[in-house]
Amino acid sequence: MKAESIVGIVAGILTAASLLPQLIKIIKEKKSDDVSAGMLIVLMLGLCTWIAYGIMKNDLPIIITNAFSVTVNLFIIILKKRYSS
């Protein structure tokens, strides 16, 4: 495997995992007031664009890691709506 592929996969995994601490905090505290809805929307648009790019380039690591990120982001959006005061 080429070094650039390894770097790309590691970057994708770290990016995909970046919102997990926020998701865990929301689940534990049952509060989401501190999470910016605007940030979530912009992030979701960016992730969907990355997925489209990955599809165009036929690059499975880009598609998979960003699809995981979209899933985490969707959970945060759902919990934000559920726990907002």
Question: How many β-strands, per DSSP?
Answer: 0
CATH architecture designation: Up-down Bundle
> Assembly type of the shown chains?
single chain
**Could you describe the largest sheet, including whether it forms a barrel?**
none
Query: What percentage of amino acids are in beta strands?
Result: under 5%
Terminal Cα span: 49 Å
Structural class by SSE content: mainly alpha
From the alpha carbons, calculate the radius of gyration and give it in angstroms. Answer: 14 Å
Outline the structure in words:
The protein has one domain: Monooxygenase (Up-down Bundle). The termini are far apart. Helices cover 82% and strands 0% of the residues. It is mainly α and 85 residues long. Helix 1 runs parallel beside helix 4, helix 2 runs parallel beside helix 4 and helix 3 runs antiparallel to helix 4.
Short characterization:
The chain is mainly α. The protein contains four helices and no strands. The chain is 82% helix and 0% strand.
